[in-house]
Amino acid sequence: MLNIVVLLGGNSPERKVSLISGREITAQLKQNGHQVTQIDPADYPYSHEMIRAIHELSPDVVFIGLHGGEGENGVLQATLTASLIRFTGSSFKASAIAMDKLLSKFIADKATVPVPHYQIIQKKDYQNQGIPDYSFYHSKLTKSNHASEIVIKPVDAGSSVGVHIVQDESEWKIALVDAFQYSDKVMLEEFIEGRELTVTILDGIALPVVEIMPHEGFYDYPNKYTEGNTTYQAPADLTHLEATTVQEHALNIWQAMECSGYARIDFRYNGKVFYFLEVNTLPGMTPLSLTPMAAKAMGIDFGALLEKIMDVALASPNL
Questions:
Q1: Which of 14, 100, 190, 220 is labelled catalytic?
Q2: How many CB atoms are located within 10 Å of the residue 227 CB?
Q3: Annotation says 266 is catalytic
Q4: Which of 26, 274, 291, 297 could lock onto 234 through a cystine, CB 3.0 to 4.6 A?
Q5: Is residue 307 flagged as an active site residue?
Q6: Among residues 159, 183, 223, 289, which one is catalytic?
Q7: Distances (CA, A) of 282 to 64, 120, 197, 258
Q8: Catalytic-residue membership of 264
Q9: Helix spans in 67-171 (H)
């Protein structure tokens, strides 16, 4: 039996999802026979107070069930590392890189994984100069494919908060204003027609590919977390070559970013090329989450998945 602290909730826009993930993790760990205490970082005005509370519990490991914000961007991981507390998931460096979609694209590109064309708009430029010219960015991001849409997303947010697929100029301003609520930088990306696929890496092993098929629109926040809005296929209906290609892309990115424990890497597939979208170093653990789904397709149930994630953290030589 292990003494485990589960961190859940937090202050990010993904708090609600994190609470669900954290409660699912807690319930399963208790069922596995462990002693578990939940801690919500939002209950502590200062991080040193939370660290003191964790130290008082003397856990064997902290299982991070947070999503987005300081729970996923490396700040918490750096604090735990400096406090000599073992935790699940990637290091502070890998977490920070993965959370930044611009840095992630640089690294994926260097790892020879295809990425969609993109442009960056800074919040300060938007505030000083007003709404950018739609036609300028539209022409830059649609000239290489047949799609007319532009994807707008905050550079450092998760769970698709602030993400929009803009069909025409009438949606441009509203989408930008919303995206800038979540980040000081917004990424404009060419829209890749095709299938949405994701690969979970568990301790350096690629799990079966999962395909995501929203019934309407794209895989936004409501479609991620509303039961019945999306159909999932695990493993995805791919040829052996297709499956191994996207798994190899995911592994290349995992290794290039120096991730550890587990992570989920998302792609779009147009039937010819797998385009990297982003890395999630703390993927969801809700009943609708993709990582438990991928593990199940490989014969790993939720309890065994959590044990494996903790085993990796406990074996880490960093502390």
A1: 14
A2: 8
A3: yes
A4: 297
A5: no
A6: 159
A7: 8, 25, 17, 14
A8: yes
A9: 69-72, 75-82, 92-99, 101-110, 123-129, 134-142
* Predicted confidence pLDDT, tens digits, the chain (319 residues): 999 999 999 998 889 989 999 999 999 999 999 999 999 999 999 999 999 999 999 999 999 999 988 899 999 999 999 999 999 999 999 999 999 999 999 999 999 999 999 989 888 777 667 778 888 888 888 766 666 788 999 888 765 778 888 888 888 888 888 888 888 889 999 999 899 999 999 999 999 999 998 776 555 455 555 566 788 999 999 999 999 999 999 999 999 999 999 999 999 999 999 999 999 999 999 877 899 999 999 999 999 999 999 999 999 766 6
Structural domains of the chain, ranges and CATH numbers in brackets: 3-89 (3.40.50.20), 97-113+193-300+311-315 (3.30.470.20), 118-190 (3.30.1490.20)
CA atoms within 13 A on the CB side of 182: 27
What the block records as the tokens of 238 is 């791919």
Model's pTM, two decimal places? 0.89
Active-site pick, 68, 73, 182, 264 = 264
Cα angle at 30 between 70 and 285, to 5 degrees? 40
User: Known catalytic residue: 126?
Assistant: no
Could you tell me if 179 and 114 are in contact, meaning their C-beta atoms sit under 8 angstroms apart? no
Which of 73, 95, 260, 280 is catalytic? The answer is 280
Q: Is 58 a catalytic residue?
A: no
From 15, 189, 266, 289, active-site residue: 266
Q: Is there a catalytic annotation at residue 21?
A: no
Active site includes 86? Answer: no
Question: Sheet of 61-64: strands edge to edge?
Answer: 35-39, 3-7, 61-64
Q: Which residue has the tokens 């699912």?
A: 24
- 14 as an active site residue: the answer is yes
Catalytic residue among 10, 68, 162, 284: 284
